[in-house]
Recover the amino acids of this structure.
């Protein structure tokens, strides 16, 4: 859908917030009047083509269920070994944390910190914070600390890289396969499921939670 | 006023964090009433910051490619791999399709980011009206592909942890991988600090 109608000047009170249901394109600052979207519909900016909004089919309850699933799978992906290599009957396997601590000992602390952040701490923080907000949103309430949590989620967003890691595991398996016996372990399957869940979440604009749960009258 | 009004023409400002449409009050340190983040029309010092981060990333990108990223040793036979030689090895030893993926993630994507961001910065600085829609699309592409460059860093980390068979076979990380990881982070920060709204600022004689 293209080109929504243009707003007229709405005479609003002194408040900084604008009452009319307007929407500003994040990529080019074009102002649109908001319109409810039908199922499967997306709104695109008529100037720069960026995605403005998409229809949301998932309620907070469904989203919470997905987040909890992601948490379970995330724990499994981290607890279970990812791959086992075999050479002359000797076997070596590793988990994500095995990899992170090993890189630290090998004098690649920068890599170790990057991996710990983008593959463990940030994804975990994202899952927990989102779960916290949704737990209360399901009851139509704002969670304690709603504001800082939502701001934190905004800044965390680009720094979770589990999906890149899964591709990395695949490349490593192929590279190692040339010299070793490679056995994929349960951890890698947990990661595969996690990537599917991440893809589902990538389509959800978390900003709508601001509107979904109204501010409590103080 | 054109058919598609922009926020400043209507005296509005969109919160960069939560997206709330706010009135553009002429007070210093205006904050979003919904999320409390500071309100600004454009990202602060967007061009200067993006240039700085991009140049820093490019400087680190040189050792990232010249220095080896990974050492493989087996029975006294030591072999140091750079990013490019790793791709070549994948290609020669049986999986050209994966070699293409790694080549894209590790070499093509960072180079594309340097070229695209530099182009966007120069054209935005000149207020150019040239190919605005295409430039806006390029920016979104760069934002989307940016973090996939981390692929090689994870591959080295995982192989290091796995290939530990004493004298028979051993993999160790080398400094190149650290420079490469930092390059990826800096290019991500660079593309985040660029403000795509600048593409549409300047002389607007075209719309």
């Amino acid at each position: 859908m293209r080109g929504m109608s243009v707003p007229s000047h709405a005479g609003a009170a002194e408040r900084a917030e604008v009452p009319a249901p307007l929407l500003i394109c994040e990529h080019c600052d074009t102002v649109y009047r908001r319109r409810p979207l039908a199922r499967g519909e997306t709104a695109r900016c008529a100037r720069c083509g960026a995605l403005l909004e998409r229809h949301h089919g998932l309620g907070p309850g469904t989203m919470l269920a997905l987040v909890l699933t992601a948490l379970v799978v995330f724990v499994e992906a981290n607890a279970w070994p990812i791959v086992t290599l075999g050479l002359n009957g000797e076997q070596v396997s590793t988990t994500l944390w095995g990899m992170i601590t090993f890189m630290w000992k090998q004098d690649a602390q920068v890599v170790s910190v990057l991996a710990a952040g983008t593959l463990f701490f940030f994804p975990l923080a994202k899952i927990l914070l989102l779960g916290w907000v949704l737990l209360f949103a399901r009851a139509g309430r704002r969670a304690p600390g709603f504001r800082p949590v939502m701001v934190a989620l905004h800044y965390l967003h680009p720094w979770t890289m589990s999906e890149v890691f899964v591709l990395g595991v695949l490349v490593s398996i192929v590279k190692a396969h040339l010299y070793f016996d490679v056995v994929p372990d349960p951890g890698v399957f947990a990661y595969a499921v996690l990537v599917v869940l991440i893809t589902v979440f990538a389509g959800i604009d978390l900003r709508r939670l601001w509107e979904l749960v109204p501010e409590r009258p103080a | 006023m054109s058919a598609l009004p922009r926020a400043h023409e209507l005296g509005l400002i969109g919160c960069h964090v939560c997206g709330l449409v706010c009135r553009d009050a002429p007070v210093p340190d205006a904050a979003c009433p919904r999320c409390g983040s500071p309100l600004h029309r454009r990202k602060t010092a967007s061009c200067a910051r993006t240039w700085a981060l991009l140049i820093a990333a490019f400087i680190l990108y040189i050792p990232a490619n010249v220095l080896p990223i990974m050492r493989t040793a087996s029975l006294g036979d030591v072999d140091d791999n750079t990013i490019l030689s790793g791709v070549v090895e994948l290609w020669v030893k049986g999986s050209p399709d994966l070699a293409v993926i790694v080549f894209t993630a590790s070499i093509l994507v960072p180079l594309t980011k340097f070229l695209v961001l530099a182009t966007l910065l120069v054209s935005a600085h000149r207020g150019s009206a040239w190919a605005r829609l295409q430039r806006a699309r390029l920016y979104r592409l760069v934002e989307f592909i940016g973090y996939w460059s981390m692929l090689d860093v994870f591959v080295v980390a995982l192989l290091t942890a796995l290939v530990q068979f004493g004298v028979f076979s051993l993999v160790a990380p080398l400094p190149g991988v650290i420079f490469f990881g930092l390059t990826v982070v800096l290019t991500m920060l660079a593309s985040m600090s660029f403000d795509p709204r600048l593409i549409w600022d300047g002389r607007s004689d075209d719309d």
